[in-house]
Design goal:
By secondary structure, the chain is an all-alpha fold. It has one domain (3-46, 69-264): Ferritin (Up-down Bundle). It has helices at 3-12, 16-31, 72-99, 105-131, 144-151, 156-184, 188-219, 223-235, 245-250, 255-264. The longest helix is centred in the last third of the chain and has 32 residues, at 188-219. It starts with a helix and ends in an 8-residue tail after the last helix.
């Protein structure tokens, strides 16, 4: 089997347990050099919604209820939202593998490893949800991450800029506060899971930074100006502070990029 076929199988799997298992299997097979990336592979199919469980109710972000953390139900709803992000992140990683052809072998190895990590994160969150008496699909979710995948389906450069370096990097900013709130509530089990995710997501965003710079070099574009132009054109509404500058620096953001992001973010009380 080609790596592209394996990635497509992972994308199309609708049941979470199957998607997770296929993701782990595909990454392990890649490490064993059992999957090839043929130069003459058929072009990827037009982007479409990945497989997801029928029971999952996807709504507009504005229709989602507020998630208070003060009750077990509220924490379960919150953890479900994080699990949904990780579920989407599995799909985003595999779509990068499947969609963007003629990339270096290291590109495919990097994003397959991200998919494997995201599948493990999803498993940790689902296990915690079950400990709280719930499961994935019990609450509503939105489709914002995948909508950005659709907008960037025709450009690896734009995908690397706007998915890992904008949407996923937002997790670097907000997760420390989430961890602190959970610990203050005595929910160390949930906080410990988020701590693992935060540490590993820095590497994922760094992978995005690396391949964004690579794509810019290939296309003869200046990375920092290109990044800010893409945000202004496509994702300005996603830029919000405060920022976790140390984590972003570790993930490949330059000082000037972070200054430009801070300038784009709305001031407290302002409206876009």
């Amino acid at each position: 089997m080609s790596l592209f076929d394996a990635a497509r199988r992972c994308l199309e799997a609708s049941e979470p347990a199957e998607k997770v298992a296929l993701s782990h299997e595909a990454f392990a097979a890649l490490l064993r050099v059992e999957l090839i990336t043929p130069a003459d592979a058929a072009l990827p199919e037009p982007i479409r919604a990945p497989g997801r469980p029928e029971r999952l109710r996807v709504v507009s972000p504005r229709d989602l209820p507020q998630r208070g953390l003060g009750t077990p139900e509220g924490r379960a709803n919150f953890l479900h939202a994080i699990a949904h992000i990780e579920f989407n992140a599995i799909n985003l990683a595999w779509d990068a593998v499947y969609r963007f052809r003629n990339m270096p072998a290291e590109f495919y190895a990097d994003w397959a490893s991200v998919a494997d990590d995201e599948a493990r994160h999803f498993e940790l969150l689902v296990q915690r949800l079950r400990e709280l008496g719930h499961d994935y699909g019990d609450f509503q979710a939105h489709n914002g991450l995948w909508e950005m995948a659709e907008k960037t389906a025709d450009s690896c450069l734009a995908r690397m800029a706007l998915v890992p370096r904008v949407l996923e990097a937002r997790g670097l900013d907000v997760t420390p506060g989430m961890i602190a709130r959970l610990r203050n509530l005595g929910d160390n089990a949930s906080a410990d899971i988020l701590a693992v995710i935060l540490c590993e997501e820095i590497r994922h965003v760094a992978i995005g930074s690396h391949w964004f710079a690579w794509c810019c070099q290939r296309e003869g574009r200046e990375p920092e100006a290109t990044f800010i132009d893409l945000i202004r054109d496509t994702a300005k509404a996603s830029i919000r502070g405060p920022f976790n500058f140390p984590a972003r620096a570790e993930a490949g953001f330059s000082d000037s990029e972070m200054a430009m992001l801070a300038a784009l973010a709305p001031t407290p009380g302002s409206k876009r």
